[in-house]
Write a structure and sequence with these properties.
Layout lengths: L2 H19 L4 H17 L2 H19 L4 H34 L17 H4 L3
Length: 125
């Protein structure tokens, strides 16, 4: 099954679990976790982050912080955050290459101000 075909099935499973078991049930967290993992693999980072946060909150509350399922969600969530940070650094590196080719000074993600001419380029990050 392709990733694109899986999304409606994950969404349906989540809806059924929320309706039948409630939004705070560990099995609902299981569906949230799986959908978040799918979204992360598809590069839908904002959606994945939100779902991981929900799944993690449920698992911590219902299963405890030391439970293997809770730790698995925590690790996946941390991996997603690391992946986002890495992509941001790579994007700034690419942006710096473009900026340098245009004759501007390179910028870094830590700088609070960006040359006004670069704002449209940096807004795509």
């Amino acid at each position: 099954m392709e990733k694109v075909e899986a999304e409606p099935l994950y969404l349906r499973a989540l809806a059924i679990r929320e309706q039948q078991l409630g939004s705070e049930h560990p099995d609902t967290a299981f569906s949230l976790h799986d959908l978040a993992h799918l979204y992360a693999r598809q590069g839908k980072f904002a959606e994945a982050e939100s779902l991981y946060q929900r799944a993690l909150a449920i698992r911590v509350q219902q299963l405890g912080p030391e439970h293997p399922d809770t730790q698995n969600t925590q690790e996946r969530y941390e991996g997603l955050l690391q992946q986002k940070a890495t992509l941001k650094v790579e994007a700034y590196s690419l942006l710096n290459a473009i900026v340098f080719d245009l004759g501007y000074n390179p910028i870094s993600p830590q700088e609070d101000s960006i040359d006004e001419d670069l704002v449209p380029l940096s807004s795509i990050l």
